[in-house]
Specification:
The complex is a heterodimer.
Chain A: E1 2-5, H1 6-20, E2 24-28, H2 44-48, E3 53-55, H3 60-72, E4 76-83, H4 91-97, H5 101-104, E5 114-119, H6 134-138, E6 144-146, H7 151-163, E7 168-173, E8 180-183, E9 196-199, E10 204-208, H8 211-227, E11 231-235, E12 238-240, H9 244-254, E13 257-264, H10 269-280, E14 290-294, H11 303-309, H12 313-324
Parallel strand pairs in A: 2-3, 2-4, 4-5, 5-7, 6-7, 10-11, 10-13, 13-14
Antiparallel strand pairs in A: 1-8, 6-12, 9-11
Helix pairs in contact in A: 1-7, 3-4, 8-12, 9-10
Chain B: H1 22-47, H2 62-70, E1 77-81, H3 85-90, H4 95-102, E2 126-130, H5 136-150, E3 156-161, H6 168-180, E4 184-190, E5 193-194, E6 197-198, E7 222-224, H7 228-243, E8 249-254, H8 274-280, H9 283-293, H10 298-321
Parallel strand pairs in B: 1-2, 1-3, 3-4, 4-8, 7-8
Antiparallel strand pairs in B: 5-6
Classes of the chains: A alpha/beta, B alpha/beta.
């Protein structure tokens, strides 16, 4: 057991899979010799050499297209897109190519690859380097979408993503890279499509993802200590496949649902969860499901402004408290 | 059939021919006639409203598909565009499978789930037909990267039109392939029109692919895409270079499509007489004359036509008799487990 950062967990997860399977290869901008702009891939080039860990030009379409061609013909590529905002310049592969080739070919074409990317706000980078784009990916049939919140989940879910036979979008949160967590020694392998109850409770369910998980947990502590509200917090971890059983079971117990999303308001992932709960657990609910999101605006750069728009523990506490009428 | 890829090459000087050899010339002819007749049949079937959706024909461009395919060996990979019927057939995919897909029947190559623009037959090395312009150039790079990484000797060949040379993925892929020295061949079929617009009206250079080659450190290659011998020899040279680890090639093959861009296009934008001029240079007409120069009898040539027509006629009847796809395939193969489940 050791305490490591989320950043180091990325490199450890990739290294674990590359050591296990020689067909796992890794490509992206500045990922090899420089060790990544977030220093999340330091040491891989030295450990696995220039044939398996490759620097690319600034060509996001070439990166994702090459990953797909390699995956179709027998490799298990991990491709890095430096900032998830850049998905917009290579979205053809994410929206049209990876997820549809198997279906269109009636099952002939395979696409076992992972796209890792730095997602999310908090770095004061402004509207084109701070977005949370998990909802861009969640809406596309054929993709799997994962967003870990802890170093342990980074390793376990990355390993599961690499071993998965489908294309997986793996969203690392930039504001979590420096956070630390306990990680056991040896191989770590988790399961896609499993949410985790990270704090049991009985009065309401708060569903969160990535950076929002720690904020939901902090809010739950305050709710308990200052308001006597015992919140259950669920880390969704995987948007596709989506572990609706865990969420529905929690709502059946607590009778209230809150989602905490970093997406802008419209069509955020929480809307889908609220819709499922409304359809399938309406009579379990004692009040309306509530979404806590960023407002529907581009993200501002200034620290003061960015901090206001992202859901905070204080905003979560306030929303839950008012909604529960305590 | 002309599509047996593992046949031993005919030695230079054998029979009555030169480096290409009589058997390969007959194969090249048979292949071109087969693509022509299958696509002509597809055209006839849309007039009968039996081919649904859109369709983009390669009538007049057959020498490129045939020349490159006949120079491939088993295991080489083709990446095609939405104008991909010819390239798919040229790798040996049965006419029935292609027409069945165009007619959206259960006997189609993908049982109607892909349609005309997405023909795929991995067992024949046809790694997909891509309908987003330029998308498959980086994908072909990835397949070539796998060959390089694993030490496999196959070559990835990527076909595309002149219009593709103005999209970003073309330039990203060429630079990427050149920097990584990948065993990939980029084949631009310059048929003079980007959909409905003359390519020269929207491109800064005369030869939209070849005149960009120097930007990526590649040789400038322009060939007569209506001469199957020239295409075949060019392909052989490029494959040998790729297999030797000497990197990618970019080839611009000049040609002309006899029909419009797609089913919806009567091609009225073409100047009067242009089509007639190019029909004088019809690749099949050119090649029939060449066979005769080499002493091949009319009887042999006619027998090839008869064989091809039988395959096309039989395929047509089989497709007309084939059922529609069953509804239970709607939700299959979204994910690798065979299903479509996105939640538990």
């Amino acid at each position: 057991m050791a305490e490591i950062t989320y950043r180091d967990a990325v490199a450890r997860g990739i290294a674990q899979e590359m050591a296990r399977d020689p067909d796992v290869v890794f490509l992206g901008e500045d990922v090899a010799k420089a060790g990544g702009v977030f220093k999340a891939t330091v040491g891989l080039y030295e450990q696995f050499g220039p044939l398996r860990v490759r620097d690319t030009p600034i060509s996001e379409q070439a990166i994702l297209g090459a990953a797909m061609g390699a995956a179709m013909t027998g490799l298990k590529p991990i491709a890095e897109i430096m900032f998830s905002d850049f998905f917009a310049v290579c979205f053809d592969y994410i929206a049209n190519e990876f997820p549809k080739s198997r279906y269109m070919s009636n099952g002939q074409t395979k696409c076992p690859l992972v796209v890792r990317t730095g997602n999310g706000a908090g770095s004061r980078f402004g509207a084109q380097h701070s977005q949370s784009v998990e909802n861009w990916c969640m809406m596309i049939p054929g993709l799997k979408v994962v967003a870990p919140s802890t170093p342990l989940d980074v390793i376990g879910l990355l390993a599961a993503a690499v071993r998965d036979p489908d294309p997986v979008i793996f969203l690392e949160h930039k504001s979590l890279y420096a956070t630390k967590g306990e990680v056991p020694d040896g191989e770590i392998l988790d399961t896609l499509g499993t949410a985790k109850i990270v704090r049991p409770g009985k009065d309401c369910t708060i569903v969160a993802l990535a950076l929002m998980v720690s904020r939901a947990l902090a809010a739950a502590e305050t709710l308990k200590n200052e308001h006597g509200i015992d919140a259950e917090v669920i880390d969704v971890r995987s948007l596709v496949p989506l572990d609706t059983r865990t969420i529905l079971a929690s709502v059946a117990k607590t009778n209230r649902l809150f989602t905490v999303e970093e997406n802008p308001r419209l069509c955020g992932w929480g809307a889908e969860i609220v819709s499922i709960v409304a359809d399938e657990a309406f009579y379990d609910l004692d009040g309306p499901p509530v979404r806590i999101t960023t407002p529907h605006i581009p993200l501002p750069a200034a620290d003061l402004l960015e901090d206001i728009v992202l859901p905070t523990p204080e905003r979560i506490v306030d929303t839950v408290r008012r909604s529960l009428g305590s | 059939m002309s599509t047996q890829k593992d046949r031993a090459p005919v030695a230079a000087g054998s029979g009555l021919n030169d480096d290409i050899g009589e058997q390969k010339r007959l194969d090249l002819y048979r292949s071109q006639v087969r693509l022509r007749e299958a696509e002509q049949r597809a055209f006839d079937l849309f007039l009968q409203n039996l081919v649904k959706g859109t369709s983009h024909l390669s009538l007049g461009q057959e020498a490129i598909a045939s020349g490159f395919a006949e120079a491939m060996v088993k295991g080489d990979l083709s990446f095609c565009t939405y104008r991909g019927h010819a390239h798919t057939l040229a790798r040996g995919v049965p006419v029935e499978k292609v027409l069945g897909e165009l007619m959206q029947r259960d006997n189609g190559l993908m049982r109607g789930k892909g349609g005309s623009m997405h023909l795929t037959s991995e067992e024949h090395g046809v790694m997909g037909s891509y309908a987003i312009i330029g998308a498959h150039l980086p994908i072909a790079c990835g397949a070539a990267w796998r060959a390089q990484y694993k030490g496999d000797k196959d070559v990835s060949v990527c076909f595309f039109g002149d219009g593709t040379t103005n999209i970003g993925a073309f330039h990203e892929a060429l630079n990427f392939a050149a920097v990584w020295k990948l065993p990939v061949i980029f084949v631009c079929e310059n048929n003079l029109y980007m959909e409905y617009t003359p390519i020269g009206d929207v491109t800064a250079v005369q030869h939209p692919a070849a005149d960009r080659a120097s930007a990526y450190g590649l040789e400038r290659i322009v060939i007569d895409g209506n001469d199957a011998d020239e295409v075949y020899r060019t392909a052989q040279k490029a494959y040998a270079k790729a297999r030797a680890g000497e990197g990618p090639s970019l080839i611009e093959a000049m040609t002309y499509r006899h029909s419009g861009h797609s089913r919806a296009d009567p091609a009225k934008y073409r100047p009067e007489g242009e089509l007639e001029k190019w029909k004088e240079r019809d690749p099949i007409k050119i090649y029939r004359e060449r066979l005769k120069q080499f002493g091949v009898s009319d009887e042999t040539i006619d027998a090839i036509h008869a064989d091809v027509m039988k395959e096309v006629d039989d395929a047509t009847e089989a497709c007309k008799a084939a059922p529609n796809p069953p509804l239970d395939i709607l939700t299959t193969d979204v994910y690798a487990d065979g299903g479509w489940a996105w939640r538990n």
